[in-house]
Amino acid sequence: MRTQESGLLDHVHEAIRLSREHVAQGGIPFSGVIVGGSGRILGTGFNRVREDNDPTAHAEVVALREATTKHGVRAVAGATLIASGEPCALCYMAALYAGIGRVVHAADRRTAARYGFDYTSSYALFAEDPANWPLEVTALQLPEAEQPFQDFLTLSRARR
Predict the structure, then answer these.
(1) Alpha-carbon distance 17 to 69, whole Å?
(2) CB within 8 A of 143, min separation 6: which ones?
């Protein structure tokens, strides 16, 4: 009889396999697998930042995009995100925002850093107010700035 944990190990092995396959094709060693409550794989992805010239195309985000495109946003609520390497802060936030219930990773952040992928500073950045980030943040308080929100609220109420 297969236990839930042995199924989890199979999925972690799959994430590592996907990562190695991507490296063999010239990519970098990060992959993600979204697993639903039944143990079914809902989506997979590998880091496509270089291939797509998309700074948000991290493996976990790509896997989430595939899972939600195929199965809908609600399908990932409570699902497990399995990553070949520990997610960066962006990917942890994407998982949290998507409603992922559990994150499992194979290699941790210190292991990734030893191989030239040091993203540990990203965790501290999210603890800071964006006004203190190393980028300029400007708020332009225009009178009509609330109008799209008011329109949305009005339309939402009308659809009920």
Answers:
(1) 23
(2) none
What values do phi and psi take at 97, rounded to 5? -65, -35
CA torsion through residues 111, 115, 119, 120, sign? positive
Provide the 3-class DSSP secondary structure of residue 12. Answer: helix
Convert the pLDDT of each residue in 97-153 to its tens digit: 999 999 999 999 999 999 999 999 888 888 888 778 788 777 788 889 989 989 889
Q: Name the token pair of 67.
A: 């899972």
CA distance 51 to 38: 32
Which residues carry out catalysis? 60
pLDDT in tens, 89-104: 999 999 999 999 999 9
Q: At what angle do helices 89-98 and 59-71 cross, to 10 degrees?
A: 20
Q: Are 136 and 126 in contact (CB under 8 A)?
A: no
- Phi/psi for 119 (5° steps) reads -115, 20
What are residue 43's DSSP bridge partners?
Answer: 34
Alpha carbons within 13 angstroms on the beta-carbon side of residue 12 total 13
Residue 94: how many other CB atoms lie within 10 Å: 21
Tell me which DSSP letter residue 39 carries: S
List C-alpha distances in Å: 102 to 26, 39, 72, 86.
30, 13, 18, 13
